[in-house]
Amino acid sequence: EMIETTESLVTNKLSLSDLDLIILNTIKHEKPRSIRDLAKKINKDVSNIQPKVKKLEEDGFIKFEDGIKNSKIPYLTFDEIKLEI
Asked: Is pTM beyond 0.70 here?
């Protein structure tokens, strides 16, 4: 029998913009190698992406692992998002 492990994030302060959702989707499907690579994949300047990525990390949506040359590789902490009202 297979047991599924899940993790939940419960908050009353959820605020995701269209760009946040694009960032999350890009991380999930395109596996960027750095924040700079993420910005390139969505055709945005890295200075515009950096604060968004930082907030998504603070909110618990993404984490980072160390990459080459001090780069940070973003990855998701979930497989899906469910919104309950």
From this structure: yes
* Res 73 pLDDT > 80: yes
CA within 13 Å, CB half, 75: 8
d(C-alpha 20, C-alpha 10), whole Å = 18
Cβ neighbourhood burial of 67 (10 Å; 0-12, 13-18, 19+):
middle
Contact present, 13 and 2 (Cβ < 8 Å): no
> For the structural domain made of 18-76, what CATH number should be given?
1.10.10.10
Segment holding 75, helix H or strand E = strand 72-76
- pLDDT confidence of 69, banded at 50, 70, 90? confident
Q: Is 34 within 8 Å of 73 (Cβ atoms)?
A: yes
Are the beta carbons of 57 and 64 closer than 8 angstroms? yes
